[in-house]
Amino acid sequence: MSAFLIHYAGHVQGVGFRYSVKQLAAGFEVTGTVRNLPDGRVELRVQGTGDEVEAFLQDIRESGLRHYIHEETRAATERDPHLAGFVIAH
């Protein structure tokens, strides 16, 4: 299992970014959360098998969201056994 914390910077708030990421997640066997941060970035926590996570992240990069993303940072993190499904966090 892989688990990552990803931050997206750019024009990523107020454009349906979180909703779109949630919709994309439905096509993959991943769990996680996506939420807006006070500094204008969007935070994505995602976990699943390595191939599923990588395919999901690639799908985000290749979707219409790519036009809003100016920077993506990624860090490996501990898997959260309590995560179930994929949700928009507040």
Describe the structure.
The chain is α+β, with helices and mostly antiparallel strands and 90 residues long. The protein has one domain (2-79): Alpha-Beta Plaits (2-Layer Sandwich). It has two helices and five strands. Strands 4-1-3-2-5 form a five-stranded mixed β-sheet, with helices on one face. The longest helix has 13 residues, at 50-62. It is globular.
In short:
The protein is α+β, with helices and mostly antiparallel strands and 90 residues long. The protein has helices at 17-25, 50-62, and strands spanning 2-10, 30-36, 42-48, 69-76, 86-88.
Helix-strand layout with pairing:
Blueprint: E1 2-10, H1 17-25, E2 30-36, E3 42-48, H2 50-62, E4 69-76, E5 86-88
Parallel strand pairs: 2-5
Antiparallel strand pairs: 1-3, 1-4, 2-3
CATH classification, class level: Alpha Beta
- What is the C-alpha radius of gyration, as a whole number of Å? 12 Å
Total number of domains: 1
Low-confidence stretches: none
Name the shape in a single word.
globular
CATH topology: Alpha-Beta Plaits
Summed over residues and divided by their number, the pLDDT gives a mean of 96
Structural class: alpha+beta
Strand ordering within the main sheet: 4-1-3-2-5
Please describe the biggest sheet, giving its number of strands, its sense, and whether it closes into a barrel: 5 strands, mixed
Termini Cα gap: 25 Å
Beta-strand segment tally: 5
| Helix-strand string | EHEEHEE
Q: Looking at the chains present, what oligomeric state does this protein adopt?
A: single chain
